[in-house]
Design brief:
This protein is mainly alpha-helical and 368 residues long. The protein has one domain. Helix content is 68%, strand content 0%.
C-alpha cells in the first residue's frame, strides 16, 4: 500500500507543480495555455494509461475495446438513438474509434479518456480562477475523485463535462449549459438528470427565501423522504415497471455513516456561505453550495443501491471549486486554519476510502 500511495502522491504532486508554474507564468496565449494544460495533465494521463488491473471495471473496459473497435460508429449511434438501451453511449464508442486510429492498444484509450476527462476538469477550474486557487482545486480533485475515474471511466467523463458547464448556469446561459449536458450524456446517460440544476440559479434571486426554505427542508429531510419513496416504489411494483431492477435496491443496509463523508465538508462551507456570497458575484457560491447539498440524498441512496449512489459524483465534484473558493476568499487567519483543515480532511478521506477501504479497487497500483 505504501508504494502505491507514493506512486499516486508523486504523480499528483508533479501535476500540481506544473499547475503552480503555469500560474506563475501568467500566460495569455491560447497556444501556450494549451501547452501548459497538456503538461499539467500528462502525469495523471500516463498513470491511467500504464495501469494494469487497477479499477474494478478496468478489465471489462479492455474487453469492450476488443469488440468496440470493430463497430462502425455511425450505424451504432443510429441504433443507440433509435432506443436500444443495451448499447453503450456513442461518445465512449467514438473515443474507442479515435484510439484505434492513434494506436491500437487499450492503453491509448485509457490515456485519451483521462485526457478528455481532466481537460474538462481543468477548464472548469480555470473558468472561475479569479475566485479560487487552481493548485488547491487540483489537489482536491486528485485525492477525492481521480481514483474513482480509474473505475467509472464513462461516468467520470460525463461528470467532468457537467462540472465544466456549471459556469453557464452561474452566467445564466441556459442553452450553452444544455449543449454540454447533452454532450455529457453521450458518455453516460445519467447526465441528463442534471439539466434540472439550472433552476438552482433562481434561488439566488429569491429575495423572500421561500424557494431556499423548501429546498433546504427537502435536503435535510431527504433520508426519510428517499427511504419512503424507494420503499413505496419497490412494494408497489413501480421499480419493475420502470425497468430499474438492475439497481438492486436493498433495504437491509440502512445507517447514518454517510454523514461522516458529507458533513465535514458541508458544515464549514455552510458556516461561511453568507460571507462568500458577499464576496463572489452572480450568486456563484450560493448556487454551488446548493448543488453540494445534493450529496446528502445521493450519498444516502447508496445504502439501498450502489449504482444509484453514483449520482453523487455530479454533486460532490463541486467541492473542487467551492472549497478552493472558500479558502481563497477568507480572511487571513481563517484562511490558514481552513487550509490545514481541508488538506488533512482530503488526505484522510483518500487513505480511508481508497487505500484502506479499496473503494473502486485502485489499490495496489500495478503496471499493465
Amino acid at each position: 500500500m505504501l508504494s502505491s500511495l507514493l506512486i499516486y502522491g508523486g504523480t499528483f504532486s508533479v501535476s500540481i507543480l506544473f499547475s503552480y508554474l503555469y500560474n506563475l507564468s501568467k500566460s495569455q496565449s491560447k497556444i501556450t495555455k494549451f501547452f501548459w494544460m497538456v503538461l499539467i495533465l500528462l502525469p495523471v494521463c500516463l498513470l491511467a494509461s500504464l495501469r494494469g488491473d487497477v479499477g474494478t471495471d478496468t478489465l471489462t473496459y479492455i474487453g469492450m475495446y476488443g469488440w468496440l473497435k470493430h463497430v462502425e460508429i455511425f450505424p451504432y449511434a443510429l441504433e443507440y438513438f433509435s432506443g436500444n438501451s443495451d448499447l453503450f453511449e456513442p461518445g465512449y464508442v467514438f473515443l474507442n474509434w479515435v484510439s484505434l486510429f492513434i494506436y491500437d492498444d487499450p492503453k491509448t484509450l485509457f490515456f485519451l479518456s483521462t485526457f478528455v476527462q481532466m481537460s474538462f476538469v481543468w477548464l472548469g477550474i480555470q473558468s472561475m480562477e479569479k475566485y479560487l486557487n487552481p493548485n488547491l482545486s487540483l489537489f482536491i480533485y486528485y485525492l477525492f475523485l481521480f481514483n474513482t475515474s480509474l473505475n467509472l471511466v464513462r461516468q467520470s467523463i460525463a461528470v467532468a463535462i457537467v462540472f465544466y458547464a456549471f459556469q453557464y448556469i452561474v452566467n445564466h446561459q441556459f442553452m450553452k449549459y444544455l449543449v454540454f449536458v447533452l454532450l455529457a450524456s453521450l458518455f453516460h446517460v445519467t447526465a441528463l438528470l442534471f439539466i434540472v440544476l439550472y433552476v438552482f440559479s433562481f434561488f439566488a434571486q429569491d429575495s423572500k427565501g421561500i424557494l431556499k426554505a423548501i429546498f433546504y427542508f427537502f435536503i435535510f429531510s431527504s433520508p426519510l423522504v428517499v427511504y419512503g419513496i424507494i420503499q413505496l416504489a419497490t412494494s408497489s411494483g413501480l421499480i419493475s415497471t420502470l425497468g430499474l431492477e438492475g439497481y438492486n435496491f436493498n433495504f437491509s443496509n440502512f445507517g447514518w455513516g454517510f454523514l461522516f463523508y458529507t458533513l465535514p465538508v458541508i458544515l464549514p462551507l455552510g458556516v461561511f456561505s453568507q460571507e462568500m456570497n458577499n464576496k463572489i458575484p452572480n450568486g456563484a457560491y450560493g448556487f454551488l453550495f446548493n448543488i453540494t447539498l445534493l450529496q446528502i440524498p445521493f450519498r444516502f441512496i447508496t445504502y439501498f443501491s450502489t449504482y444509484a449512489g453514483r449520482l453523487e459524483d455530479y454533486a460532490s465534484i463541486v467541492q473542487v471549486i467551492l472549497v478552493s473558493m472558500l479558502i481563497h476568499n477568507s480572511e487571513e487567519g481563517n484562511k490558514q486554519v481552513l487550509t490545514v483543515y481541508f488538506v488533512l480532511w482530503y488526505l484522510l478521506y483518500h487513505v480511508i476510502t481508497f487505500a484502506l477501504g479499496n473503494t473502486n479497487e485502485t489499490y495496489p497500483y500495478v503496471l499493465g
